[in-house]
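[Discussion] Sanity-checking designs against the backbone

I'm trying to build intuition for which residues belong where. Below is a structure token string of 151 positions. I'd appreciate it if someone posts a full sequence so I can compare it with mine line by line.
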């Protein structure tokens, strides 16, 4: 069973306060999909009157990482997770509320199962797409998550 959004948002407050104070929140999470959102405000703006790219990155990473955390908790094993690489593209100024959606929850589960079976580290690429309130894509992030069973 996936972690509840309220638990993940409490985790943000204590473990990732920069994301929390910039307004990043998990709005929904299931085994296959995670949605995060952040609103353009004074604290997370850039000089060009839009949301700073790093704030978008925090929200995008959370939409992928929350599912990794949830999948690891289900297995109850000591498994490490780490962002090995990320890539982003920006297509429009981020203004208003931006919602990031990742639909790769089932993929990370398969990769974790493979890492457990093989005893070796595995890489999983997960994509998060940010959309504004009109549904227009403002940014797309890809994160390569490395998972490995600890000895």
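Best answer:
Here's mine. Compare freely.
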């Amino acid at each position: 069973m996936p972690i509840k959004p309220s638990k993940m948002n409490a985790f943000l407050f204590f473990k990732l306060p920069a994301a929390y104070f910039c307004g990043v929140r998990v709005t929904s999470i299931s085994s296959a999909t995670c949605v995060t959102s952040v609103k353009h405000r004074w604290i997370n703006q850039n000089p060009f009157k839009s949301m700073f790219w790093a704030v978008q990155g925090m929200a995008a990473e959370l939409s992928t990482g929350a599912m990794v955390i949830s999948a690891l908790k289900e297995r109850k094993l000591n498994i490490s997770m780490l962002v090995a690489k990320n890539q982003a593209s920006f297509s429009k100024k981020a203004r208003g509320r931006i919602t990031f959606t990742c639909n790769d929850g089932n993929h990370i589960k398969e990769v974790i199962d493979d890492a457990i079976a093989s005893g070796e580290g595995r890489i999983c690429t997960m994509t998060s797409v940010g959309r504004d309130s009109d549904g227009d894509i403002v940014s797309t992030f890809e994160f390569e998550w490395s998972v490995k069973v600890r000895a």
